Amino acid sequence: MAALMGRLQGDLNASRKAQDKAATLLLGTIIADVKYREIELKRDLADDDVIEVLRRGIKKRRESIEMYVNAKRDELAAKERHEVTLLERYLPAAVDPEEIRAAVRAAIAAGAANVGTVMGQVMPQFKGRAEGGTINAIVREELARKE
Predict the structure, then answer these.
(1) What is the 3-state secondary structure (H, E, C) of 52-117?
(2) Is domain 3-88 given the CATH code 3.40.50.1820 in the classification?
(3) Per-residue pLDDT at 114
(4) Domain with CATH 1.10.10 in the chain
(5) Which of 12, 113, 122, 134 could potentially form a cystine with 27 if both were Cys, beta carbons 3.0 to 4.6 Å apart?
(6) Which CATH architecture has domain 97-146?
(7) Residue 23 clears pLDDT 70, i.e. is over it
(8) pLDDT (tens digit per residue) in 63-121
(9) What pTM was computed for the model?
(10) Nearest-angstrom CA–CA distance, 73 and 82
């Protein structure tokens, strides 16, 4: 079992003992998502796979926050923000944007001329450590400078 999955299980048990219903529900949902992913891939998951599931959960909640804010449902948006904060504790430290920018510049110098090609070269380097949207924004900036 992945170390991160063990940490999630331990925190779930702690939240149950503390009778923290919100954390118990959130962690239970994420652990279920991890198990579904394990069944989908038909193999034991590594920490990178668990991080990918966590990032998907965070992305879903950020989309929900946006919808709730647009619908003026501030109490629901606040709940989702709290869940994002809890889930981000399990992610590795964020990558410095300058490190991403250097990798993007290297890919462009190697001949990548469009967003898809650059993303294809850069994404594997930062898998599980940076969000695709962040990388995409940097790629677009650097390609705009090149033109």
Answers:
(1) HHHHHHHHHHHHHHHHHHHCCCHHHHHHHHHHHHHHHCCCCCCCCHHHHHHHHHHHHHCCCCCHHH
(2) no
(3) 80
(4) 97-146
(5) 12
(6) Orthogonal Bundle (1.10)
(7) yes
(8) 999 999 999 999 999 999 999 999 999 988 778 888 888 888 888 888 777 888 888 88
(9) 0.74
(10) 15
